[in-house]
Amino acid sequence: MQKIEGGVTAAKGFEAAAAAAGIKYHDRTDMALIFSEKPCKVAGAFTTNVVKAAPVKWDRNVVDSGMKAQAVIVNSGIANACTGEEGMKYCEETAKEAANVLGIDAKSVLVGSTGVIGMQLPMERVKDGIRKLAEAKKPDLESGTQAAQAIMTTDTKKKEVAVTVEISDVTVTIGGMAKGSGMIHPNMCTMLAFITTDAKISRKALQAALGEDVEDTYNMISVDGDTSTNDTVLLLANGVAGNEKIRYGTWEYEAFKTALHYVNETLAKEMAGDGEGATALFEAKVIGADTKEQAKKLAKSIVCSNLTKAAIAGHDANWGRILCAMGYSGAQFDPEKVDLYFKSEAGKLKIIENGVALNYSEEKATEILSQPKVTAIADIKEGDVEATAWGCDLTHGYININADYRS
């Protein structure tokens, strides 16, 4: 596997575009298109929130039906959530307009929305934006980057990644883009991720690869503990690479899944590190666990702790908050066996051993915790299983952003 430049247009046969439709923002692009020259097999993962946005329902119907998809239309600014029958009608209108200008079947159009909940989409602006997207679409890497920028809301930077992997002596490419900064606590944030690949792969293998990997990537991040109404991950495969079809359970499947994992993990970490108001990516790694479930519960509990996140923001080695978060995680462990370390580019420092504080340097701990990426490593000494979760520090900036987000 090799990391390469680009995002959703890195894979063969895909084009992208961005447009300024003025849906909510009036100083930037706010609509994006991903288009494939050939119909794609599609896999998806969606929010478990009972309150589901109209685009989630629309896309789920497409994925569950087994229909192929050829285009994705995404808008930022308004989430099209809690919009009733009108919201579903808007998804249909979006698909029909896209189908008309792109010359494809309306049933092959996927949609995505992110932004304020409860507002209705200004459909004339959306339709105008779709026409602009159709005219602007290109297969170059810059168009993919522009699409990644257009789906941002409170994000401070675009999120995209691409890799190649050799499968049966054929180079296969996987590229992706995502947005997510607040309302991030996926159970599959407002979190959207769109992944493209030119791999030829069975629908069963495509859905299995995404479904299995979501659990170790997007579902292991948290910014604020809020699971969005719009969380969506879509994976489109057009088969243009020309490899032998990848089937579930084969070594080719494992190679594809490894590359997909890199893409998903990279996008997930970028979302966690770009949390609203954040100054640092906070990584919690639990090692020495007896089971994967135990390790995951403990790691996720650490990155979700507001007290711990605030301590990271203050560069304060308040390890008691981490042990406390582990204690209410729901996972059983012996606190008197736990070793805890802090690690960053500034070094690695053991803070507690067997549940008791060591005589460590507070100055060194502060230096380690002052870096843009900070890792807490908890060794519970029960086995050889580990899990990692990602979050961010909690600053005053988070409140400043969310106190008046709607208005």
UniProtKB/TrEMBL annotation:
GO CC list: cytoplasm
Entries under PANTHER family matching the protein: ARGININE BIOSYNTHESIS BIFUNCTIONAL PROTEIN ARGJ, ARGININE BIOSYNTHESIS BIFUNCTIONAL PROTEIN ARGJ, MITOCHONDRIAL
Purpose of the protein: Catalyzes two activities which are involved in the cyclic version of arginine biosynthesis: the synthesis of N-acetylglutamate from glutamate and acetyl-CoA as the acetyl donor, and of ornithine by transacetylation between N(2)-acetylornithine and glutamate.
Residues under site feature: Involved in the stabilization of negative charge on the oxyanion by the formation of the oxyanion hole: 114-115
Species of the source: Mediterraneibacter catenae
Active-site residue list: 190 (nucleophile)
Record-stated family: Belongs to the ArgJ family.
Broad EC category: transferase
Matching Pfam families: ArgJ (PF01960)
Keyword set includes Oxidoreductase: no
UniProt superkingdom: Bacteria
Protein name: Arginine biosynthesis bifunctional protein ArgJ
GO biological process: one example: ornithine biosynthetic process
Listed GO MF terms: L-glutamate N-acetyltransferase activity; L-glutamate N-acetyltransferase activity, acting on acetyl-L-ornithine as donor
This protein's record includes keyword Amino-acid biosynthesis: yes
Major place of residence: cytoplasm
Keywords linked to the UniProt accession: Acyltransferase, Amino-acid biosynthesis, Arginine biosynthesis, Autocatalytic cleavage, Cytoplasm, Multifunctional enzyme, Transferase
Reaction it catalyzes: L-glutamate + acetyl-CoA = N-acetyl-L-glutamate + CoA + H(+); N(2)-acetyl-L-ornithine + L-glutamate = N-acetyl-L-glutamate + L-ornithine
Assembly notes: Heterotetramer of two alpha and two beta chains.
E.C. numbers: 2.3.1.35, 2.3.1.1
Residues that hold substrate according to the record: 153, 179, 190, 276, 402, 407
Pathway it works in: Amino-acid biosynthesis; L-arginine biosynthesis; N(2)-acetyl-L-ornithine from L-glutamate: step 1/4; Amino-acid biosynthesis; L-arginine biosynthesis; L-ornithine and N-acetyl-L-glutamate from L-glutamate and N(2)-acetyl-L-ornithine (cyclic): step 1/1
Alphabetical list of SUPFAM superfamilies matching this protein: DmpA/ArgJ-like (SSF56266)
Subcellular location: Cytoplasm
Signal peptide bounds: none
